[in-house]
Amino acid sequence: MTSDSHEGVADPERALMLAYVPAEKRPALTTLWRLDERLGGVVGSTRETMIGHIRLAWWREALEALDMKGAPAEPLLRDVAAHILPKGISGAELAELEAGWAMLLETDPPDPEAIAAHGRARGRPLFSLAARLLVGSEDEMAAIAGEGWALADLSYRLLDPAGRTMARRLAAERLRGVAGRRWPAPLRPLGMLAALARRDAASEAAVRRQGAPGRVARMLAHRFTGR
Predict the structure, then answer these.
(1) Non-local CB neighbours of 221 within 8 Å, separated by 6+ positions
(2) How far, in Å, CA of 159 to CA of 137, rounded?
């Protein structure tokens, strides 16, 4: 498989968000979200902590190596090299996402410190990098929203009720920092996810019905209003 494969993301709501990204920027954004999904998949499929750390470390080192040599025969890394690096984002910057996922392997279930750190180390850089791909520079509102979004997303990955509640409480705190602000049009794809995260942070459900009509309607409302 070559680097022009343009595989999509698995998450239906992220796929909808990406549909509203300008066509010329979509391959880079799609690749960024695929990378986040891949790292999350490593954690989600890991039963032994050491094996999980080894697998995540492989991705971190492989991403860092892209700054010094060509991509290996791994389709996602080839897409990173083809679509993200030419936009001025380095492999080392992408490798920072690994730390956010690695924190979840330290304790089972993750303790409050690991949950909060996951939001900072995964969501903040993920949305900051996405903002750079969308508008050419980082955006503090997007970074804060990314932290809250990651915490809300994490709450549905946790089986521990106390951890789930903690993640949602922290998500709500972070997202209050951007509540009521109008997102500029170029950043609204990210705002679509933040709008859902605010709903998720207030939820008590153990599962979410991704792609449900109400959730899609909320995303589209944000796309057209910025709120």
Answers:
(1) 195
(2) 36
Task: Quick: pLDDT tens for 204-213.
Answer: 888 899 889 9
pLDDT tens, residue by residue, 90-99: 999 999 999 9
Cα 111 to Cα 53: distance, rounded to the nearest angstrom? 18
**C-alpha dist (Å) from residue 150 to 115, 174, 175, 185:** 10, 10, 11, 22
Which residue has 């951890």 as its token pair?
163
Cβ neighbours for 56, distance < 8 A, ≥ 6 positions apart: 39, 42, 43, 98, 101, 102, 105
Q: Where are the alpha helices (DSSP H) in the chain?
A: 12-19, 26-44, 49-65, 75-79, 91-95, 97-102, 112-118, 124-135, 140-155, 161-176, 188-201, 213-225
Q: Each residue of 110-148: pLDDT tens digit?
A: 889 999 999 999 999 999 999 999 999 999 999 999 999
Largest CA distance in the chain: 47
Q: In angstroms, rounded to a whole number, what is the distance separating the alpha carbons of residues 110 and 104? A: 6
Is cis: bond before 184, omega within 30 of 0?
Answer: no
| Angle (nearest 5°) at CA 166 between 162 and 171 | 150
